[in-house]
Specification:
638 residues; Nucleotidyltransferase, domain 5; 29 strands; 23% strand; 4 domains; 6-stranded mixed sheet
Length: 638
């Protein structure tokens, strides 16, 4: 078979591939990452690249205009190489790193009264009697005797790898050593204890004992580096989940994982992300990743399955069952985390196929598990998980909102990075927009918070009607008919970073309406199932990193959030990683998360006709039943 040379503008060197190779595969061989939000199914159009020399065969031209094709654009996941060619990747299609941040350092403190007594991982300083001709006790027995005398624990487990080192360590320290032990785990609450490591000499009592709390989000991975001795968070870092290059939502990734080698690739991508964050966090405190001796991991069910290489196909197939919701305690060496190889890795328990450990952990850290009054907890993300209840009971569901509010499925949507329009205001007389851009640079697209604000402003100023139709008769060039139908121009080409108009199309609006309708319908159905009006909810807790940036007024205006007094809303940020942090510190918190997961009642919305009816009703701005939104009704004069 003939081979061809493919040159990517951003690659260090060209690659040789045989005829018929998918362009996305050629890019991977060249070390170039291209977004595949739909997992390579050819549905989203976000992997469009420009062929500047040579030609390729396009198997699909979905979401490409006639002008795009004439300019050489092709979908990387749907085009094959048939000759030598040169390819340019537009800036918006490259996977960009999310800047890590320490902005919350000092805001996270250990729970009141935190004590290392609540921490199963601890150091024990030992001074042993050396063997002699009268005492020829073996090294392991001698060590166990010393540990029993110091801790009162009768039995210890040890790995073969560590057992091989014990004699050399004891002698290197002249029979003075420091043992790192773990007294119990959540799945073995009464032991036996485990010897995690043995070091020669006495380690200073105030030397940090490192642990990490990790939240594997569909879009972002967040990691907190913690000193287990005092509960202090010493570094916080985050980056985009490397898996987004193979699909932006869980269904796309499950489909991708079912391909040959797909599961292994997705596991390697998320492990690469986590291990890179570990290296960054440890560098900030002048530690080594191998110094980290414990990790707790939160994430939705799909993310946990993909992390561990557990088949996830059953999650998307009726009756939508996970392989497991409670993962046994693992060790870092087998889990793939680049920390101490004997470190405990505790994947927190989930509830069901689409309500995972991120929600179990979030319920704990949000305080819902202690709430006396009716509380609604919403994690605004691709899955749109919702929990309704009090400390006595909780019901939960997940509504497939999709990644529209994270920029996917929107023509000029993007993540909240530099160049993203994050807020928008529209003049009701001239229909001219004013926008704020992350980084104060020329805009490249619109992120989730900007899309919510934009949709609300378009509705408020009458540019679109309650069904999302763009009013083309308005006296402004901002509304026009484009390649994808009616659209509103947010920024003209001369104002943008890439010289092309940034627009919101009718197709984009439909995607946003479906996303907000799914989320609103989810908590509406939960309230209905419990036989109580939604307005009886006394507080609304909003979790998820994206939730920190939502404008409540605009979110209510479009019908994403219920119409309630603003003081009832609380924005909590990443509740999943905070819950993982609490479980990392305290065995009681870890037990509570397991209890939360086991007690929560899961409602599968795909099997519930009332959800479809609620979803259909919520496809309007703000809702078919305008009386559900009295403040919006008053503003609109209806």
């Amino acid at each position: 078979m003939a081979e061809h040379t493919v040159r990517f503008e951003s690659a260090h060197a060209p690659v040789r591939v045989p005829t018929g190779t998918l362009m996305i595969e050629a890019a991977r061989l060249a070390g170039v990452d291209i977004q595949q939000p739909c997992g390579g199914q050819g549905r989203c159009g976000r992997c469009a690249v420009q062929v500047t020399e040579g030609s390729v065969r396009r198997r699909s031209t979905l979401r490409l205009s006639t002008e795009d094709i004439a300019a050489g654009y092709a979908l990387a996941c749907q085009s094959v190489i048939e000759g030598d060619c040169a390819i340019t990747i537009p800036p918006q299609q490259k996977i960009e790193r999310l800047l890590t941040t320490d902005r919350m350092i000092g805001e996270v403190t250990a729970p009141p009264g935190y004590s290392t007594a609540a921490q199963p991982m601890r150091r024990v300083a030992l001074t042993l009697t050396p063997p002699d001709m009268q005492d020829q006790t073996d090294d392991w027995s001698r060590l166990q005797t010393a540990l029993r005398q110091k801790t009162g624990i009768g039995t210890f487990q040890v790995s073969l790898t560590l057992l091989r080192r014990i004699g050399a360590v004891l002698r290197a320290g002249d029979w003075v050593a420091t043992a790192l032990i773990e007294t119990d785990t959540w799945d073995c609450p009464n032991g036996p204890a485990r010897l995690v490591d043995l070091l020669p000499g006495h380690v200073p009592s105030d030397a940090p004992l490192w642990g990490v709390a990790i939240d594997i989000g569909t879009t972002t991975v967040t990691l907190w580096l913690v000193d287990l001795l005092n509960g202090a968070v010493q570094a916080q870092v985050a980056d985009y989940n490397g898996q987004i290059a193979r699909g932006e939502d869980v269904i796309s990734r499950i489909i991708y994982a079912d391909r040959k080698g797909g599961s292994e690739e997705l596991r390697e991508l998320v492990l690469k992300t986590i291990n890179s964050l570990l290296a960054t966090a440890c560098k900030r405190v002048q530690a080594e990743p191998a110094d980290v001796v414990k990790a707790t991991v939160a994430g939705n069910s799909t993310m946990i399955h993909l992390l561990l290489g557990i088949p996830a196909q059953s999650i998307r197939l009726s009756p939508f069952v996970t392989a497991m919701n409670q993962v046994p305690t693992l060790q870092a060496g087998e889990a793939g985390l680049n920390i101490h190889p004997e470190a405990t890795v505790d994947c927190l328990p989930g509830v069901a196929s689409y309500v995972g450990a991120d929600i179990s952990a979030g319920v704990l850290s949000s305080g819902l598990d202690d709430a006396e009054s009716m509380t609604l907890f919403v994690d605004v993300g691709t899955n749109g998980e919702t929990v309704l209840g009090t400390r006595e009971w909780q019901v939960t569901c997940a509504c497939s909102a999709g990644p529209a509010f994270e920029g996917a499925g929107v023509l000029h949507g993007m993540r909240a990075t530099q160049g993203a329009i994050e807020d928008v205001w529209i003049n009701s007389d001239t229909f001219e927009p004013t926008w704020r851009v992350i980084g104060g640079v020329a805009p490249r697209g619109v992120c989730g918070s900007g899309l919510i604000a934009l949709l609300g402003e378009l509705f408020l100023t009458g540019v679109i009607d309650r069904s999302g139709n763009v009013k083309l008769t308005l006296p402004t060039p901002r509304v026009r008919r484009g390649e994808h139908g009616p659209e509103y121009v947010i920024a003209w080409g001369h104002e943008t970073a890439e010289g092309r108009d940034i627009v919101l199309t009718r197709v984009d609006i439909d995607n946003l309406l479906r996303a907000k309708a799914a989320i609103y319908a989810g908590f509406s159905v939960l309230a209905e199932k419990m036989g109580m009006p939604l307005e009886a909810t006394e507080q609304v807790l909003i979790g998820g990193s994206f939730g920190k940036y939502i404008n409540v007024e605009k979110a209510v205006l479009i019908g994403l959030l219920p119409d309630m007094p603003w003081e009832r809303f609380r924005f909590l940020g990443n509740t999943a990683v905070r819950g993982a942090y609490l479980a990392l510190l305290d065995r009681a918190a870890r037990t509570r998360i397991a209890d939360i997961a086991s007690r929560m009642t899961y409602i599968e919305l795909s099997a519930d006709n009332s959800f479809y009816e609620a979803f259909t009703s919520a496809l309007f701005l703000p809702h078919t039943d305008i009386e559900r939104f009295p403040t919006v009704q008053a503003v609109m004069g209806k």
